[in-house]
Design brief:
mainly beta, single chain, disordered C terminus, globular
Length: about 210
Amino acid sequence: NPDSTMEVKDGKLYIHVPAGNNDLIPGTELAPTLTMKNPSSGDYSLTILYTGPTAFFAAAGILIYQNINGQIQLLYGMSGGENVWLMGIVNWAIPAVKDKDGNIRGAGWGNHLFTGALGAHEKVYLKMVKSGDEYTSYYRLDDAEEWEQWLSAEFQLQDPEIGFIVKNWNGGAKLTAEFDFFQIETETFDVRVQNSLPERWGTIKSRPF
């Protein structure tokens, strides 16, 4: 969406999304994203801290993106309550997802992708861990010390980029998403940056996407 903008201010990344239907699914490619090349071809862990706010029919989180038909989104937002959910698309299908015990929770689009209502939180940590073709999602709320494992699924993606996404739908309200932590860990590459983006993204000024 050409009306979306982003800026870095006081060490935080802000992504501004206009009201409307700014999603990133086949047929709608308007959600603003900020991604980078994955520095490793192997396994990795990607963690972000999202500090809101979240409007109704809006969400923000991690994006792992090959193309519109090959992507994963791990999101926190409002969709019938504050939830975390994992969704991904490969070859026009949403793969089956497993719970932390390895049981199939469901396939396709549906309520099985969502946690129960988590309530509003000032800080939401989201993490994706890649092991081969399997991606496992985690979340941590406010100052909790332990990660909550959510869903995992297999996605065969070729050299996807990794980063952030902010989206709204169903005529969702104008939204400003705020991020202040981004971390990638691999066996060969480790970036730990608090309160700023990795320097590899350079200086980012407010500009249209």
